[in-house]
Write the structure tokens for this entry.
Amino acid sequence: MPKQLRVTSRFPNLAGLYAEQGASEGRPVYARQSGDAIGMCIVFSTKFGTGPRWYFAKAPPQAGGSFNSFCCSEGDAASPEEAAWPAGDIDSVRDARVSVANDMDDDVDMDVSASLGQKQCDACRDLAEICAGLQCSACGPAAAVPASSGLALLRGLASSAILKQLALGLAGGDAVATQTLERVFERHQCRDMGPVIILHPHSSIQVGENTATLTCEAVCVTGSSVKYQWRKDGMPLPRAERPRYMLCGAGPSDEGLYDCEVSAGAKSERSQPCEVRLLADVESKRVLSERPLQQAAEAQARGDLAAAAAFFGEAAAFGQTEGARADALSKSASLLLQLGRWADAFRDASDAVKLSPGLVAAHVIRGRAATELGQLAEAVSSWETAELLGGVPEAAQQAEACRQRLQQFFTEQQEKRRASGAHAGTGGFADKPNSGDDPEASWQRNGWHGRYAGDASGGFFGSGNRGSKGAGSRNKHQSFLPQRSPELQRHLGILGINADASEPLPSADTVRTAYRRLALQAHPDKPGGSKVAFQELQNAYEAVLNAIAV
């Protein structure tokens, strides 16, 4: 039987089983045993390089011709397994016939390792962490080399969920998963710098009151960043530049054909299209809310923004889905913002975000209205959430500007408080905490506008009443009192900040970092996230920001 060598390498085109096949310059030539079209051999030569070497090449050197190799040994050796190889290219070259009992660390065929209790090679162990039963390109059958190599290449490039899905598909013989992985391997072999779509959106979905998400994921095997652009009926969608596109309850305008165009460098490709249709019961109910929307459009066309805002409010009241109601409220808030009705715009935008936390336009409107009202904690929260959701270039700058204004205000008031400490109780900002005056009332006399007065502490999402102008008194037990209230402690706990009641409050930067980290997890569009958790988190963020400089 011809001698066989087992090669392990991070490069799939080098790894595998090689069998003795012919000779060159008096030494054996070992050809790679593979069912793919990639030829590879290990050959010895004294005529090339800096002296006698073993080479990995596609073919032995031809007389009088050139010789192209992938890598070579670091010196002469009697056989490839005795040679020293570059650690970055070759992990090991070993005699495949060596008994496992002689060397329990040898990488041998998986059937031998299973029968004798031999440990898996490192590559197989890595794949087993994703899905049990998978073998690497060196240990598995030749026909599976391209797909298993493609799966190995995706580690570190694809999301863990998609990696797991493809691995399970490969192990179960799924043709689509296998073809996808083979395509990844093919792109790697060709050094193709374009993107490869590894997850397409569903071919069709029916949507109703619940949130629906379209997902597309792509990688570039050369490591280049991938950009996404969702399209509807062939036209790019605004603020739709992420792997997921969320439909927060659908209306008639959402029906159509969606796809995602992914690009890396100068190359791009498109996902398979997804047809979005309304559920039958939603279609029958939508007629009830169409009339006010038509009236709003007509009023807007003739320049009557106040009437248009009122019609959008009516459409929100009759909307059949949370997404439709949120969209109508957001449009109403946008018009109210143009009219300078800041409190009403803030109210409608807050209600829209309560219904649909992923509606970035509502967060932007809420942030602008809150800035005009001087409700800086709410402005910071809204702008930062818009930044996290993406598609709003000015969000980060606006959030930072509001943070600076908030910090400046509290710094000024604290300085005044320290300076007038000797005059406490005279009606200035340094009112005694036990004087019977609400601390916020004292601050408001000094120029602070307060924050949105919902029915809950931190009440960004408090139901309040829709006639509220965003002002109102606060309960005495809330976080502005010198003693830290249980409610404030609860808000800190929601943010994951474990601070003893006797300790100073954390810095604004610490609170912001905690919020941004948890917001990415709690958002309804994320696995394990929910609307309730996201709302509660933003409530807590605003409450703690307002209490931080007490």
